[in-house]
Records
---
Amino acid sequence: MGDAIAANVESDLDAVVERCLAVLRQRPSAVLSDIDGTISEIASTPDEATVHRDAHDALVRLMGLIDVVGIVTGRAAEAGEGMVAIPDLLCIGNHGLERRRAGVSWEHPAGVSAVTGIAAALDAIRAGAERAGIVEGIIYENKRLTGTVHYRLAPEPEVARATLLRLAEAASDRHGLRITEGRFIFELRPMVIINKGTAIRDLISEEGLKGVVFMGDDVTDVDGFDTLRAVRDGGDVASLSIGVVASETPRVVYDRSDVRVPGVPAAATLLVRLADRLDEIPRSEGPDGQA
């Protein structure tokens, strides 16, 4: 991590907690978090990732202290729900294309309409990659409403990226999809612009939220950061965007988050300290100590 970037990482977690409390005193309020790279270390494959135990336990505690606690992830909602394993936790999955809460699911019609195209596009990319000899270390993940191609484990990731991008662009054009990128991945999504930012904006409207804290680590989380800045600038909602940063973090995460913490363990500690501080406040009072 370069010196200039490292200087933008907040080492005083208690100071970040105080900023969170300032936002959460605006009721009703929410604590939202991405999963991978935020409360779970990035793993070689999606199935190997696990949620940090301290983060899990802190989220359980926060469920009884905050109006809304939720996950906003690129994983399928059911997969994210199963990974975090907290009953009744809100899980916004597939970058906003679906939700689950207490076993009840909702899927955006645009996502449902793209299911066949997503599967066909992934098959076409796989077939083209195999013809080009790009096989080792490539993972194809069909999440129904979106699809992801992972190339982190390829022997030459940049060579794999060039071939996979060409194939993904052709398949997406053929099936009416759009492509987004993250760390060593391509994602295939419906053409409609739905993302973590639009999902958070919808949640704010539906729940009447007045304060929102959101943690994320990658390019797709920046949509959420931008939405929270916009609603804050509009004077409607207090907000705080927390970038969870590590050696691979894209520069845009530093630039667009309000504060930054150094990695998953720090994010987990932040949640624990936030739960501790909220637990000190009598249930009849808000996070600011006001009745």
Note: The domain at 112-190 is CATH 3.30.70.1020 (Alpha-Beta Plaits).
---
Amino acid sequence: MTGGAIVLIALQVVVMLALAPVIVGVMRQIRARLEGRVGAGIWQPWRDLRKQFRKEPLSAVETSWMSRIGPGVLMATGLAVCALVPLIGTTTLAAVPDDLFVVVGLLLLGTAVLALIGLDAGTAFGGMGSSRHMTIAALVEPTVLLSIYALSVPAGTTQLSAIVSSRSAQAATIWSPVSLLAIAALTIAIIAETGRLPVDNPATHLELTMVHEAMLLETSGRDLAWLEWGSQVRLGALLGLLAAFIMPFGLAAEVAPGLLVVGVLTMLIKVLVLAVVLAVAEVFIAKIRLFRVPELLAGSFALAFVAVTASYWVVTG
């Protein structure tokens, strides 16, 4: 199974690399249409990346090695998450388990690297964005951990592929109150982790409101392309993970050509459906005040904590 697991991991990484910019393009196009605008098309993120990769990166005078290696590290952590998360199939490498704590650790590493890039140039906006970014992350990462842990209790393991397989085999657990609480908490955490409304507005460039954009102001060219692409890959991987928990069907139980094709098509449909739903929801909601964001995230953490408690009560009771 080692060779099959390697094939599956490579396929997941390649598909997500190609799909991630399209997900962002679809979300932007949906928002544009609902707001009465024509929109740039779903391929615009790919065109932006191609243009940025052709440009030489320029850095501020005082930047250090962090600004040089940070974009690559962010992309590497995103690809590692894509390799471990069950997007297309549930076959895993025994030497590299798709453990919940490993995936959350990789997400936290990418989050910290992005914050350090924002701080490295020493600008006011970069420091402001990094500070806000880490404040949000301090509440988001524990919520992601607890919400998925609540789903892992019935499965008896923290391996993501086993959790998804267990939910697929026991369809009744998908719509149980514990599952709904955990999914709601995880959804809020993913929205905050990826900088979507109502936590952050990915379309804004106002200095007083932006979080993600503030950390990228001092990057350009290929470095900016890697950062943008890495962020898009993280969004796609997290949406794929959420889709696998909500609809744990269509994933390849073993590595076979027919099953892999079905897994790819199923993953594309589920992720794009979630992206469309998220984009439609963003049209009808406004960004909340920065000082109200911790309240929202604390509420999601409370939902995750209740889900873990209830999950243990159901299993032991």
Note: The chain has a mean pLDDT of 93.
